[in-house]
Structure formats: structure tokens, C-alpha cells
Amino acid sequence: YPYAFPRDLSTLLRYAGNTSADVHYHPGDLPRLLPFLWQYWRNSHPTRHAAIARAYAPLIAHSVSEHRALAEAAGATHLIRPSGWIKVFRNAATQDKETRNVERWQREYGVAFEALDPARLRTVEPHLDTSLLGGLRYT
């Protein structure tokens, strides 16, 4: 699913403060960026965003095979593990929200994933911080 521009006021205010690790910008560049940001915000409306996701699906479906081909051409296949990508969580609310998202993506697009509780996460990635609540492994 493509990343959507945040539409909730609390996130927008946090980003506006320019102190988030997620977003950093140079205030002097805002006049030049505003048209792009406006279009990004408009296209992140749930209806438009869903349509964009459907249009992107065929492209995204080939991303793993294309990354493998590029890694092979670069002689870098040893840097890629075929075990998937894991997103880990320190916050239960964030974990719940992301799990609902990936469950929807699984229904709509067949995205394969595995929910990892703390014990399973430690088995899969034993060197991660033991305070993590769990993770989602995109297989």
C-alpha cells in the first residue's frame, strides 16, 4: 500500500513542528513544496488512496522479483535474506493499527504476513530488544 499523507490533525501538527524523525524539511523550501504537498494530501483521501493502491498493485507485485534481479546483477544477493521483512512495535496501539492494516491488505491484495508475539519475535530475531511487544513479518 503506498504511504498516505497524514490527514489527522495531531500528526499534521507534529510534522509542522519539524521535530519528528519521520519528516524533516527546510522551512524556506515550503513555498516550493506546497503545491506537491497539497496534491499528496488530496490524493491521500481514503477513496483516492484506495484507487491509487489498486493501480499500484501490479507494479508492487513484481517488486520482490525485481529486487532479486537487481541484487544478482550487482553481486549483492548475499545481502538479502529470503525470510521477509519485519516491522516491530514498542506500542500496543500502533501494533493493533498496523495489524488491522495488513489484515486488510491480505484480504484485498493477498499480502502474506505473520504476526509475531514477543516470544516468536525473539526466536526469529534473538538480538532485538526484549522490550518489543511483537512484530509483523511480511513474508
What would you call the structural class?
mainly alpha
Indicate the low-confidence ranges by residue numbers. Answer: none
Distance between the termini: 15 Å
Neighbour order of strands in the largest sheet = 1-3-2
Task: Give me some keywords for this one.
139 residues, mainly alpha, three-stranded antiparallel beta sheet, 3 strands
What features would you describe in this structure?
- The structure is a single chain.
- By secondary structure, this protein is mainly alpha-helical.
- The protein is 53% helix and 10% strand.
- It is built from 6 helices and 3 strands.
- It has helices spanning 9-16, 30-43, 46-61, 63-73, 92-109, 118-124; strands at residues 85-89, 113-116, 134-138.
- The protein has a 3-stranded antiparallel beta sheet.
- The protein is globular.
- The two termini are 15 Å apart.
- The mean pLDDT is 92.
How is the topology of this model organized?
Blueprint: H1 9-16, H2 30-43, H3 46-61, H4 63-73, E1 85-89, H5 92-109, E2 113-116, H6 118-124, E3 134-138
Antiparallel strand pairs: 1-3, 2-3
Quick structural summary:
The protein is mostly helical and 139 residues long.
